[in-house]
Amino acid sequence: MRHDDSSPPTPRVAAPLRAAAPRRPVLAAVVLASVCLTAVGCGGDGGPAPGQAGSLPGGSAAAPSGSATSSPPPAASKSPSPTSPPASGSASVKPPKPLPKGPLTGRTVVIDPGHNPRNRDRTSEINRQVDIGTGHKECDTTGTATNSGYAEARFTLDVSRRLRTLLESQGAKVVLTQDDDRPFGPCVDERARIGNEAHADAVVSVHADGSAAGNRGFHVILPAQVRGGGADTASIVAPSRDLGERIAGKFVRITGSAPSNYIGGNTGLDTRKDLGGLNLSTVPKVFVECGNMRDPKDAALLMSADWRQKAALGIAEGISSYLKR
Known about the structure:
Helices cover about 30% and strands about 15% of the residues. It is an alpha/beta fold. The model is unreliable at about 1-90 (pLDDT under 50).
């Protein structure tokens, strides 16, 4: 609502009346009193009090301060009308939609869509070095893309959103580390921290690889045994492997894609100690490289909405299998 701070013109002061018309002042006072009882903004100084609105939401006239009325002025109300709009500057917050009851009710899953579509516009920020426990690495990277320009960051968001829908339908609480709602990142150390602070039962980082043409297939990256600085993966190595193996098995069955022919010795599993998102995690976490964006055959799959739905379902079933074990 816009408040008009300007005051109405001050009423003119009547000139002294002649003795020949003694009854006119009384008549003028009666008329003025009648106007003040029905007009908006009448006050002792001829205008509304500073900061006081002239009308209520919905267009009804506001009762003037001190005027005779059977209901209290708006300022006296301690709670807004249920139909009144929120006060100026306040945000209308919708309560979260209740999750359906299902086999994953009470479980929390963090999905980490790799990279960010806007990283390419914030190179100075994403090139900043952050501590990953075993050393330092860039905050984040832009990710790869297919030869036709379909960006990994777009792929990871699409699959992650599909994955969220599938897991929520089973009752899980799902947290995304980013949903194209940040100017860049988050940095790899913050991505790990989001999962830790959520006390996630499982965390999956969604990616696609950028290897040479001819290199095909998916692989799941597992955390290595790492201890140094802020990193200590001793408690998550075993459960993360269990999570990763289950995802790999379901991914093969549902997508029809074969395990990587260039990483992991055809097992679909790879163990690394140079990824801050794994090193700094205190909860079970894996990365899924869904395919190679630089290979034409894999790229055709990654750009297919139907195949991306299968990829999300394969990951979801792997997570569900792990959480229900």
